[in-house]
Design brief:
The chain is mainly α. It is built from ten helices and no strands.
């Protein structure tokens, strides 16, 4: 759905949290659209960090927004609106995780598969970027996303809030309702695990760098043989 002109105008006004919340609580649906568009990317990333599934993250965020619309009258401005929203999204996402675990104990699943196509790291390409460079950057992004997905849940959520959304330690602690010391510990551990995982991937990739087989090998051999034994043109 395209962004309406009045929504763009309201977004550019950068309403204070309290005023935006007051308008939504009064039933102003335009203000609610502004609220969602303003916080969508961050909240989606939070849900995605917990659930590790694009579709489930979207569902969780949509349901969380319904809770927000019903409960926003209780927002008193004691914390940032983004922090209050994050708590709701985290709670909804964790409920889904718990439900998934209960169901997995009752109904054994055959398999769960699927690659993520969510851009967790911005992918802004230069118009002059070569296709090979764009493809390599895309592969790197997907590698990093897979490694983030592989982090333990508690570390993964903290990492997304701190590293990707650039929330402060205090804001992250408030969003997740955990001590600031826990945020620092989990973030440090998440970065260490991520570095170790990426280092292993790079070591494997380095061993395969400048591979000399397949089409390249055939092409060179063929060209040399053609020079040694030029085709008879007579």
């Amino acid at each position: 759905m395209p962004v309406r002109a009045e929504v763009k105008a309201t977004l550019s006004d950068d309403l204070a949290d309290a005023e935006l919340a007051r308008r939504v609580a009064a039933g102003d649906q335009l203000a609610f659209e502004v609220l969602m568009r303003k916080h969508n990317r961050m909240l989606y990333r939070v849900a995605r960090a917990v659930l590790r599934d694009d579709a489930e993250a979207e569902d969780a965020l949509q349901l969380a927004y319904l809770h927000v619309y019903q409960a926003i009258g209780s927002y008193r401005g004691e914390s940032r609106l983004s922090t209050w929203l994050t708590r709701i999204v985290v709670n909804e996402s964790l409920m889904r995780v718990r439900k998934r675990r209960r169901e997995s104990r009752v109904i054994p699943l055959e398999s769960v598969s699927g690659e993520s196509d969510m851009v967790m790291i911005e992918n802004v390409e230069s118009p002059a970027e070569l296709p090979d460079a764009a493809a390599m950057r895309g592969e790197t992004r997907l590698l990093i996303e897979r490694r983030i997905d592989a982090l333990p849940e508690a570390f993964r959520t903290v990492f997304v809030l701190r590293a990707l959304e650039e929330l402060s330690v205090e804001e992250t602690a408030s969003s997740l309702d955990i001590p600031e010391a826990t945020v620092r510990t989990r973030f440090f551990r998440a970065r260490s695990l991520l570095r170790e995982a990426l280092a292993r991937e790079i070591d494997i990739a380095t061993g395969n760098a400048f591979a000399f087989d397949g089409a390249r090998c055939d092409r060179i051999v063929s060209a040399v043989l053609c020079h040694i034994n030029p085709p008879d043109t007579t």
